[in-house]
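User: Hey, quick favor. My workstation is busy. Could you predict this chain's structure for me?
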Amino acid sequence: MNLYLSDLGFVGALGATKADVLRGLLDGDRSGMVPYGPLLTGRHTVVGRVVQTLEPLAPELAELDCRNNRLLARALDQISAAVAAERERAGPDRVGVVLGTSTSGIAAGEDAAEALALRGRMPADFHYRQQEIGTAAELAARYLGLTGPRFTISTACSSSAKAFASARRLIESGRCDAVVVGGSDSLCRLTLNGFDALESLSPEICNPFSANRRGINIGEAACVFLLAREPAEIRLCGVGESSDGYHMSAPDPEGRGAELALRGALSQAGVAPEHVGYVNLHGTATPKNDEMESRVIARVLGPSVPCTSTKPLLGHTLGAAGAAEVGLCWLLLSDANRQRRLPRHVWDGQRDPQLPEINLLDDGVRWEHDVFASNSFAFGGSNAAVVIGRA
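Assistant: No problem, here it is.
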């Protein structure tokens, strides 16, 4: 069954419209990467922050109103017309919602706990539901007037990549005619200080695959699509998943689970490795992730496939990363990118001699093959890869 990603909504450090995100991606715009700190340790880092004003949700959605869901609503606005047309065609009960998140509204809970400690009471507008993981899918369904199946996936940094597999199954099983799919994650102190405790945060803009890489930058974003049967410009070709359970926080050094996911996506897509035109790497700039991923790319796709990590432009948006980076691929494949430009790999250019050499792009490269892949790897060995292409 052919399924199509018929529309895209995107909000992140690169901008809050499709045009701004594509422009920033191709120009290597790092203006959304801003200093953050001090952390509890006294250290500082850089984060990918959404700078646009995020309006409060409507009063009837107040119990779901948090930064994470405001980001999500801003992205949903961009696909609302396409969703409304599908809702009218198929019926609201035939349109589902599958979203990924890892932070949900934790920041709202942090602010409420701080107010309780300082003033003896929580803010009047705080509701515990603001920090529930499941509210992302509920917010989207209520916001768009949908009554089909809805659920939120939370598998850390693979959450919204895995959402594509679940959304595909809902349509292929006949349960839905279309699905709103994607993810949202917002900055919060818990994740920032947690990654700092792991000594995984970079004090400057991250430097993926460099010999000088020092860790990640956390970011925030929301990215959503309408997945449907009706032909559109971009097709969802394949999704691969695996769970290797190698370690709670470290990837399998050989990337066996990551390889299974990538090969699974290519197999479902029916695409030979030599026909992949671009890979958006997970590319977190941690020593172990980049070592593992470069080995997987070299084994599965070879040393010449065009690759970049876009984490220095967006930050690592955690539960939203899978969808956001598929969103970047969608924009690069779309008619809006008429010159078929690919983004350059933003780093210091210092290759790590311990890593297999892969084709990290300079300026001026254009894609030839119109099938792209995006990798997402998470704590606990939860791996996913998504392949999309021109219809």
